[in-house]
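Can anyone check this?
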Amino acid sequence: MLRKKTSLLILVFLLAILGGCASQEADYFFLDWKFYLGDAPEAMENDFDDSQWQAVAIPHDWSIEQSYTTENTAASTGFLPGGLGWYRKSFTLDEDPEGKHIRVEFDGIYNNSTVWINGHKLGSRPYGYSSFSYDLSKYLLPAGQENVLAVRV
């Protein structure tokens, strides 16, 4: 049975650095995400405290962790609640990003997503089943400093 999940978040990130990115580095990007179900208006800022957030790996679908209900849902959502959620990923680069082209690719974020890197808004997408990417290059911090990718869904 096919069902549309209003809170479905499927993220597939590929960190592609010109000159190559080892596959284990790309695989690392799927791990150690932080998730919060609800709104956190300052969560795009690097100094935001996400220490109490749930640790998740992506892809992640928060709706299947909820109980089925007939209130404020419909058969088209599988009778699972939707809502608003945030994801954050902290990472450091081993090499300075200067002169390199670095992008993040999303295979899909369902839906109405906005993405930030280090507090800089990269863009918003209203749809959930389309792949898209953003250029991170000009906003990344030097090697050894913590970068934060934040996604509001």
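Reply from J.R.: I decoded it. The longest strand covers residues 85-91.
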